[in-house]
Here is the input.
Amino acid sequence: MMAVVLLTCFVAMMGAQQAQAANKSHEKKHDVKKLVEALEEQWRKAQLAGDAATMDRMLSEDFIGISMSGQVNTKAQQLERVRTRKLVISKIELSDMKVKLLGSVAIVTCQADVEGTSEGASVKGKYRYTRVYQHVPSGDWKITSFEATRIQQHRPSQEKTSGATDPKPENPVEEPRFG
Here is the structure.
């Protein structure tokens, strides 16, 4: 009888320890997500200020960014665009932010209402983006990847009397680069 009581106490104690460990793990994940959300705000402010020094600290050395037009930029190229004011962002309003943690990687998806210029062309519009952070051995979280896509505004189709839609223009306009 005593062995049954001791075994029951042992099992209950182990279950409580496992529950406590699971709760701490959940709290840690929540804290990391809040940290990454704060990093997103820090990046937003750096973009608005044209703060290349902050951006330099936040980007990993092997950073790759893909703009909405498909242009690929390295860390050096991205910082040069900011320093030379080829990319000037005057407004960024973020919404629908989600942070997914996978080990030492955080994946952020977000919607951004953006205004500014890229190489003289307007980048005003709504975008969806993905930014990837990696937790590096120094303890910092570094941005390793970025990709932006413009959210197309829904336009009613222009139908002719024959019922056919207008053909695509022969020379499509290249989208300016945001990101």
The mean pLDDT is 84. The domain at 32-150 is CATH 3.10.450.50 (Nuclear Transport Factor 2; Chain: A,). DSSP finds three helices and seven strands in the chain.
